[in-house]
Amino acid sequence: MLTKSIQNNISGFTLIEVVVAIAIFVTAMGAVSTIFMYANKSQRVTEAVSEVQSDARFAMEVMAQQIRRGSIDYASSQYNGSIDSNPQDVLVLRDSANNQVWFRRFVLEGRGIAQISEDGSAWYDLTPPDITVNLLKFYLSPSTNPFSSNPSVNNQPLVTVVMSTSSAENIGENLLPTFLQTTISSRQYVR
Predict the structure, then answer these.
(1) I need a labelling partner for 105 at 20 to 30 A (CA). Which of 12, 59, 161, 174 fits?
(2) What is the C-alpha separation between 85 and 87, in angstroms, rounded?
(3) Once rounded to an integer, what is the mean pLDDT over residues 113-121?
(4) How far is residue 16 from each of residues 10, 20, 23, 28, measured CA to CA in Å?
């Protein structure tokens, strides 16, 4: 009699219960994997945006340091004594040792690159290959050299740099471009 009551209490899972348990498990794993994929994708996008912003800020800071330490070279062949219109595609400066420093945007194989030169002929990249510079413009003020012997204005030269960059890597996303703008004044006071 004891054996018969133990046998009646032993039960297992029915086929329906196993199928329902498997369906719940598969649904839960699908939801978890979807959340993981979206989180991973979001992290890659955030990392790419952060990298583009960091590289753009670096290039902008190099330009800003040169502008602060130098002055606009109004006499360069690029400007011929005065700034006729803004914006400029090329910025030509004179550093504290009276050497020229040039900045420009150059397009190579469809990718824009911010570049620096010490003579206007040998150019070096400021931005790495994983970003593209969509826009690099320079707004110069005043239009004539305020440090000439007979200046028409008595203003400290200002350079406004406008830059737009985006990721050159294809991470499966259309990332919004990064826009940077700053206005810098030279620290050289000739007056």
Answers:
(1) 174
(2) 6
(3) 90
(4) 18, 6, 11, 18
Is the per-residue pLDDT at 107 higher than 90? yes
User: What is the CA angle 181-58-183, rounded to 5?
Assistant: 25
CA angle at 133 for the pair 168 and 72, rounded to the nearest 5°: 160
Beta bridge partners of 166: 132
Quote the pLDDT of residue 146: 79
Query: Which of the 8 DSSP states describes residue 144?
Result: B
Sort residue 103 into left (φ over 0), alpha (ψ -120 to 50) or beta. Answer: beta
Domain ranges of the chain: 32-185
Q: How many CB atoms lie within 10 A of CB 30?
A: 10
Task: Return the bridge partners of 161, or none.
Answer: 138, 182
What is each CA distance from 128 to 48, 83, 125, in whole angstroms? 13, 31, 7
What's the rounded Cα separation, in Å, for the pair 44 and 133?
Answer: 20
Lowest mean pLDDT, pick from 32-46, 75-89, 130-144: 75-89
In sequence order, what are the residues at sequence separation of 6 or more whose Cβ sits closer than 8 angstroms to the Cβ of residue 48? 167, 169, 171, 173, 175
Q: Above 90 in pLDDT, residue 176?
A: no
* 76, amino acid identity: S
